[in-house]
Amino acid sequence: MHPCLNNSTAEIPSATILVVDDDAQSCELWVRWLTDAGHTCAAAASAAEAMAYLHDHQIDLVCTDVNLPETPGLRPLQQIKKIHPDTLVILHTAVGEVATAIASLNDGASSYLVKPVLRDELLFHVRSVLERQRLILERRRYTQQLEETVREQTHLIRKAHEETIHRLLSVLAFRDYETGAHIRRTGLFSELLARAAGWDASRAEQIRMAAPMHDLGKIGIADAILRKPGKLNAKEFEIMKTHMLLGAQILEKSDTPVLQLAQEIALSHHEWWNGRGYPHGVSGRAIPESARIVAVVDVYDSLSHDRIYRPAFSSPDILSMMLDGRGTHFDADLLECFLSVLPDIQAISQANPDHDFQRAFDPSFWTISTLETCRTEPARENPPPQAIGIPVAHIAAVG
Ligand SMILES: [Fe+2]
Ligand SMILES: [Fe+2]
Question: Which among 360, 363, 357 is positioned nearest to 387, based on CA atoms?
Fold first, then answer.
């Protein structure tokens, strides 16, 4: 190895160049020409020396003879491109080896020169391959910046979705904080069930954001009904049943996938698999899968939490009631999926109790967390409503 380093004033573009040639005289001449042109040069007398030098140094361009001792032909080029794919290579060759040199272009060489090589010819080739590389790198950087911008914008759009949802839902929470905890759990349960049912992560995340809006229409239900501390009569119940249509109306005609999903959930989360639900009596797979998912988790959540007119049911009773709804109220396949993730559902439920009043009005409460967060959060105390002094809403049979 005989490095000939020189940092003279650089012409544009300048580079670090390794000249590889077993002919010391030719090698020194090239190093001098390139150094005089402003490049920083080193020299190697064999492919082995070149590889060793490349291992320890950052080199932009290698100018190598094709006919090196011990490793003739394109093997040195192939070795260099394999280990240092971004390093440029210019081959120089004798007249009889032009075919090999042309073939080298397919193996990653940037250019080739036929001996004897003139100074200006060498500098022209070096300049043109460096300029080409500069453009390639510039385009790569631009593409990376573009991708980063798209990622940032996507993140901002997603945050904007979430914020819109949070603000919509916080209105409901002000009217009925129990509903606040319920709708939060519904989102997290729905994501879990959607994943268990085979939804991909991105769509499952959408339902986590959309499902909390299933009862958005309750904003149009009078307090006398929404907050009635007793069972609803038939007329009141009919009015309560309009919350699906009201919610769908609020959410309709959106171009946003999350809001479109929320709209179909709001409209159909009280439809039954057997067609005996409402508002339209749709049955089976004609009910959007998103709404069938929310139907399962909505009822489960209602049964597993206290209501002003009854305490929460025991786990065996809940299980029995859910199973009674298999194929009548609920999609049997989704119910199976739900049962398979029940331990995680219970963990989410414990982490998000009904009467966590402070938490329901903390903005961070509405920062939709991941299922993993819920799994790792400690279970929260669930104080009785009287201790907080806030009227607890009656959600009746319409959850
Ligand atoms: Fe509902
Ligand atoms: Fe509900």
Answer: 357
